[in-house]
Design goal:
Strand content: 15-25%
CATH superfamily of the largest domain: Thiolase/Chalcone synthase
Number of domains: 2
CATH class of the largest domain: Alpha Beta
Number of helices: 13
Distance between the termini: 21 Å
Oligomer: single chain
Largest sheet: 11 strands, mixed
Order of helices and strands: EHEEHHEHHHEHEHEEHEHEHEHHEEEEE
Shape: globular
């Protein structure tokens, strides 16, 4: 028999704030947090100079040299977001995290860029002077999951998800299944990404970045007819997932229930999305939830503001729902946080569901007629009640994910 899975804690670091409460407060302000990156102007051939960095975060004072030795910035972000989430769940420092029934599923697009530079400098200089015993630990794709596991002395499952823009959502889905099918009782799940000009150049070379460098407040503009591309962001988001009876027995507060998850791959192209397989993953997530599509009142869209991505995603969503379901994109506020977006957007969707207010897509003035016929939330947001929300993410490689949350 499948077990119920609930969310008992959440923690995040984002351009909109260093905790969940500040993120939601800034959502209500309906302004974005994109800025011009003056230091990026020096990179010849780079068209975009826009990003959404985390502001005001310094490594925690209680992280000593021993802990920091194996952490680049992305690992620091992920471990501290996890600390916030565990404190929110009432599990910080608890011995049951170390009994083998608690694990971690976490991802990022890559390790820390500074360490990657150190790691490969030897190929140019023919010396190994830039490397030390911890360089690879900061570089490796599973640096977030491993550092969280070591910091907490976890002995359960470790599932790294280095799947670019679905790193966070796939981690949540994998964690959900591990608990649902009885493998673990508690899972730490999420994703993180540190800001780097190389992260922007990945999309810049595909002509997929916004170049409205003089007007950062007006971009990105997901789903808009005149959108000109994405903006990269920085962040980390962690959810604590727990088996329902386990959470109830210890008197935990329940933020939401995870009731549906699906993932698949396009199998057609590395960077061009496939609306047909995207529609399948949305339908599969709805089926997994056990509720009709009519019960899901809101979709947190991937909404990157790219020419092909927005169209494929919205056509797929319309096909799967068969109606103009309400939708908006958090990326209009904080840009595309890559490996972190699936986790941060899931947290935001759950918070909106619990507070009965849903943010608009900023800079959405004229919906692209090529996009699917959906109920695009605009203006100052919307008050509405819903018992179920969905959060969708799609990544390079044709990796598609869809999550369904139920109001607690």
């Amino acid at each position: 028999m499948d077990r119920r899975v609930v969310v008992t804690g959440a923690g995040l670091l984002s351009p909109m704030g260093l905790d969940v409460e500040r993120l939601f407060s800034n959502l209500r302000s309906c302004r974005n947090f994109v800025r011009h990156m003056d230091d990026w102007v020096k990179y010849k051939g780079m068209h975009t100079h826009l990003a959404a960095p985390i502001v005001g975060f310094e490594k925690p004072d209680h992280y000593g040299r021993k802990e920091l030795r194996s952490m680049g910035r992305v690992a620091i972000l992920s471990t501290y977001a996890t600390e916030l989430a565990l404190k929110d769940a009432g599990l910080w420092g608890e011995a049951e995290l170390r009994n083998g029934r608690a694990g971690v599923a976490y991802g990022s697009s890559s390790g820390s860029i500074d360490s990657i530079c150190d790691f490969y400098t030897m190929m140019v200089t023919h010396t190994v002077g830039s490397m030390n015993s911890a360089t690879y630990i900061k570089v490796m794709a599973h640096t977030c999951a491993v550092n969280i596991s070591v910091m907490l002395k976890l002995t359960g499952r470790l599932v790294p998800t280095g799947t670019a823009c679905t790193s966070g959502s796939l981690a949540i889905g994998n964690a959900f299944e591990l608990i649902r099918y009885g493998v673990q009782d508690i899972m730490i799940a999420g994703g993180a990404e540190e800001l780097s000009p190389t992260g922007a150049v990945v999309f810049d070379t595909l002509y997929a970045t916004s170049t409205r460098n003089d007007t950062p407040a007006l971009t990105p503009s997901p789903y808009d007819r005149d959108r000109d591309g994405l903006v990269v962001g920085e962040g980390a988001g962690t959810l604590i997932l727990e088996e329902y009876e386990h959470a109830k027995a210890r008197g935990a507060k329940i933020i939401a229930e995870v009731v549906g998850f699906a993932t698949n791959t396009d199998g057609t192209h590395v960077t061009q999305p496939n609306k047909d397989t995207m529609a399948i993953v949305v339908r599969d997530a709805i089926a997994s939830s056990g509720v009709p599509a009519s019960e899901i009142g809101y979709v947190s869209g991937h909404g990157t503001a790219t020419a092909h991505g927005d169209v494929a995603e919205t056509l797929a969503t319309r096909e799967a729902f068969g109606r103009p379901v309400p939708i908006s994109s958090l990326k209009s506020y904080i840009g595309h946080t890559l490996g972190a977006c699936g986790a941060i957007e899931a947290i935001a969707a759950v918070e909106m569901m619990n507070r009965d207010w849903y943010h608009p897509t900023l800079n959405l003035t004229n919906v692209d007629p090529a996009c699917g016929e959906l109920d695009y939330i605009q203006g100052q947001g919307r008050m509405m009640q819903s018992a179920f929300v969905m959060s969708n993410n799609f990544a390079f490689g044709g990796i598609n994910t869809s999550l369904v949350f139920k109001r607690a």
